[in-house]
Specification:
The strands form three sheets. A twelve-stranded mixed β-sheet has the order 8-7-6-9-10-11-12-13-14-15-17-16. The chain has a three-stranded mixed β-sheet with strand order 2-1-3. Helices cover 34% and strands 21% of the residues. The protein has three domains: 107 residues, Potassium Channel Kv1.1, Chain A; 91 residues, no CATH class; 172 residues, no CATH class. With 443 residues, it is an alpha/beta fold.
């Protein structure tokens, strides 16, 4: 016989009661400690309005279990009726409940509202003080990249000393909480553009931003002989405010490397472009991926062009990304060799492949996209965007040996003389792999 779930009563400051279960109590350090050490029989009085308390209860009840995964769409919709002042009151009233999950939610809701705004509009939204002088702003405009990585040089002092009043823990803003936890969480969870715009408002915020890896939109690593005889790697933000830095790995300034090694990089996209064969000792790309990257997004883009020299630089076993997208153009390598070198060594990765080369040998000509789920050894879906003149032995081997039985083959044309479903929206023929295998076995 199941033990009945214990219920508690929370009472708002406008005398409305909320019946809640243990999950709500456990989501708040204050409530959990209160109920753990005291036998609560009376309503728990909370100094917050029924509107705020109702939002908190709805938030927690939406999830079966409170873990570090948020339904952002639901959360943004839940607080849609809260304007800026309402959010400020919500933070003030419910902040003392000490709920990490609530803090993360409100940080994401606020970030959704300020993403895309200029630093001046973000400053107004938070009611923050701008404490940069005109001379300092001139330096920032001329040296955006150096400001981003917090470089300090004799002629460029961009890592500004802070006064006690400029400490992030005490910085006044519309969403102030003890220890400024909401503002600090907003800074931590912001994207590269918002993070940069926050940092140019106030020196205390800039100092807080510098505690985290350097947020950039793209890290590009080019494995190719340049005019200078070396590889090139570049860091950039592709939106306003635009900034970027490109340099050859044998001639880069040591001051950049030391800062990046200390801070690490948090890119939204990483692209490795390979253009020539290089011995492993000359490949800073592998060095960067293994030692510097803290992925902000989960996908790594890898572009291979015209040869397999990147075998020397890419090691999927040490790749910190959960998903890898390979783009192959003219690569002189068979699928079996590619699978052994780039996929089978770590089957936990989700893999996507776009092959546009006859040398890949699945087709004599044409383009194909392949998809493999995480923790699977075989592919569950392929998409053929061009016609097949002839079903090659390599294609037959791929479907029979490397595709899931319950997978699907999509194509723009009816490439097989077997029944298929037709997706009118995507304008594709859809074949079951199990049916395709039966047909291929007889060929």
């Amino acid at each position: 016989m199941e033990t009945p779930c214990k219920m508690y009563t929370l009472r708002s400051n406008d005398n409305k009661n909320f019946q809640v279960n243990q999950k709500i109590i456990d989501a708040s350090v204050l409530l959990k400690n209160s109920c753990e050490f005291t036998d609560i029989t009376e309503p728990i009085l909370l100094n917050c309005s029924s509107k705020c308390l109702d939002a908190f209860v709805q938030l927690i009840n939406h999830y079966d279990k409170i873990i570090d995964v948020h339904d952002t769409e639901f959360e943004i919709e839940l607080f849609e009726s809260f304007n800026r002042d309402d959010l400020g009151k919500l933070v003030e009233q419910i902040g003392y409940l000490d709920s990490d999950f609530f803090v993360e939610t409100i940080a994401d809701v606020i970030l959704d509202r300020i993403n895309g705004l200029s630093w001046k509009k973000i400053q107004d939204y938070f009611d923050l003080e701008d404490d940069f002088t005109g001379k300092e702003r001139y330096q920032i405009r001329r040296n955006k990249f150096e400001f981003l990585i917090a470089l300090t040089a004799k002629e460029l002092r961009l890592k500004f000393p802070l006064l006690p009043a400029e400490n992030i823990l005490m910085l006044h803003n519309r969403f102030f909480t003890p220890m400024n936890i909401i503002l600090r969480k907003i800074i931590e969870r912001s994207n590269e553009k918002t993070s940069f715009n926050l940092s140019v408002i106030n020196k205390a915020i800039k100092n807080e931003v510098d505690r985290y890896p350097i947020k950039i939109s793209e890290l590009e690593l080019t494995c190719a002989r340049t005019a200078y005889g070396n590889n090139r790697w570049s860091l950039s933000n592709n939106e306003k405010p635009y900034f970027g830095c490109s340099f050859e790995h044998a001639t880069y300034s040591e001051k950049y490397l030391k800062i990046i090694m200390k801070r690490k990089l948090a890119p939204y996209s990483v692209t490795i472009s390979n253009g020539s064969r290089l011995p492993p000792t000359e490949n800073i790309e592998q060095f960067l991926i293994q030692d510097f990257i803290v992925p902000k997004a989960s996908t790594l883009n890898v572009e291979f062009y015209y040869d397999c020299g990147a075998l020397n630089i890419f090691d999927i076993e040490h790749c910190p990304f959960t998903s890898v997208f390979f783009e192959l153009k003219g690569v002189d390598i068979g699928f079996n060799d590619f699978y052994q070198n780039f996929i089978s060594k770590d089957l936990s990765k989700e893999i996507k492949i776009n092959a546009k080369c006859s040398k890949f040998k699945i087709f004599n000509d044409g383009e194909i996209d392949m998809f493999k789920k995480a923790n699977c050894s075989k592919f569950n879906e392929i998409y053929i965007s061009s016609g097949i003149q002839m079903i090659s032995p390599e294609f037959k081997n791929f479907v029979l040996e490397f595709m899931e039985e319950d997978g699907i083959v999509r194509s723009e044309q009816k490439v097989f003389k077997i029944n298929s479903a037709y997706d009118k929206v995507k304008k594709q023929h859809v074949f079951k792999v199990s049916t395709v295998k039966e047909m291929l076995i007889d060929l």
